[in-house]
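Predict the structure of Holliday junction branch migration complex subunit RuvA.
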Amino acid sequence: MIGRIAGRIEYKSTDHVLIDVRGVGYVVYCSERTMAGLPAAGEAAALFTDLLVREDILQLFGFPTLVEKEWHRLLMSVQGVGAKASLAILGTLGPDGVSRAIALGDWNAVKAAKGIGPKTAQRVVNELKDKAPTVMAMGAGAPAQATADDAVIEPMEPKPTPAPAPSQAAGGAAQAEALSALSNLGYAPGEAAAAVAQAAGEAPDADTAALIRAALKLLAPKG
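Done. Here is the predicted structure for Holliday junction branch migration complex subunit RuvA.
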């Protein structure tokens, strides 16, 4: 599995880029949004990648963040959504927009992507609404960004650190990450904080994804 590409851009097309990695050129297909964010030919670039294996072809698809890569994999799990459709959705909405559309049940936003019909858009929202919080939790903090610089990490002597109170430390981090995810979806800080606090009160040991899922149910329109 090729999970990341870092090298020099040889050329950019409308839907793919050729990246030279120490003399080997990799063709990587990307969404319009990702293509627009890549530097010009001759400059360094890095992308997280997902390898699609079929009987007649191998294709690499590239993403600027791990969160977007995970959304791609999740979108492709929906019946009728292939790699091209997934890139169209991500190119139109971006990872935050996909999170928002699924969390709010807004299949019309998904339908705005090129080539996505209403039935497919509804399937995306319905099939992923319970799976989405896990990916949303990944993007709650600072998202992992692919960089062209290969850092060299020097070994360090391990230093003993005091162990935090497990439940309190983990619970506080999960609540902060859940609150960040809800804020990214456009919820007001007050209502998001109230929902996360209520969800955490009902399930003190819940992880980030579980808190997001519970808070979204509390914030869902009643009636």
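Confidence is low (pLDDT under 50) at residues 150-168.
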